[in-house]
Automatic annotation (TrEMBL):
Compositional bias ranges of the Basic and acidic residues kind: 318-334
Name under which the protein is recorded: TOG domain-containing protein
Superkingdom of the source species: Eukaryota
Annotated segments matching region Disordered: 318-348
Amino acid sequence: MLDPKAYFAQWQAATQAAAAAPQPSSDDAEHDAVIHQVASLSAVRCAAHVKEKGQNFTSLVAIEALCTMATKSSYKLREDLFKQPHVKALCKRIQELLHQPPPALDLRDLSRAAEALAKFPEEARGNAAMSMGAIANSMSQLNTSAWSADTASKLLWSMARCGNGEEIQKNKQVVTHVVKELVRDKGRRIQELSYDGLAHLLWAVSRARIHKRGVDRQTVHMQDSDSFLFQLASRRIVDEIERIPVTLLADVVHIHNEIGIKNERLFRAICPKIVSKQKELRDDQMSKCIKAYTRFMIPLKEEAQGFRTMAVVQKGDFLRPSDKPKPQGKKTFDKPQALYPATQLHAK
């Protein structure tokens, strides 16, 4: 039987705990509404909004504004937006946030800011050693459970976008730290990556392991954890290939070509989708795919139909009617009619 006194004591304790819990203030609700408003704008309108009210933006709102302009525009449009003084000022502010991140920002917000900044032209990134390097060092010192797989992928991709890969090669220990964590326990954290994050991570690892010497010479220094990462990634891509966009599949093919890994099972699984949806790829993406398949001598063509050893005759086709033609009697032909009763003679 339920004790009324004990039940009342439990209810009273729960009520006191709910009253002691911090309630969301009106300022927080207003701040979330501003972030939602900025995220719903287009890239051009967001730039105009930054010009009008950018000086009053908090750090989170500034990051959201830069992400909106980076994700809802083409590279050409981002170049045009960066020419505006207020957008340049916003990029400069994001650089300072990455260089000296405030305690209120977590690693997820910083990774979004770094990814958005990396999508703008090279001039918008400023001194990459100060901004990206500071975040890389802080991530390597954190506990592995303090960052998600997509967060690490965005940070590594942002570093790989700086210059020709010099920044990520300076922080190779961070790449090794992230890769070893992701492939630990038979790669259980690989499933945490989104498809974009998986492709970005593979590209960042390839840029970190490629060392260029001179103009046309390069060497690849891979580690055992890198090879295991590419194996796990290819296994997941083959299993979930129907849900992955063809643009990401083209990037994966190009990444394997850059790092020099021949995975015939992966290439043959991607081939039919590239051939059937090649209209969705840009010309440079398609040329990179052709170059990769040519290097590894794997055919990039439609699946063969096979030999047809039997023909099925359908009933009632036009060439061979089903019913035998009925006799129409004796055939008559029209004889030619002479134009003149006799041969005409002409005088010479």
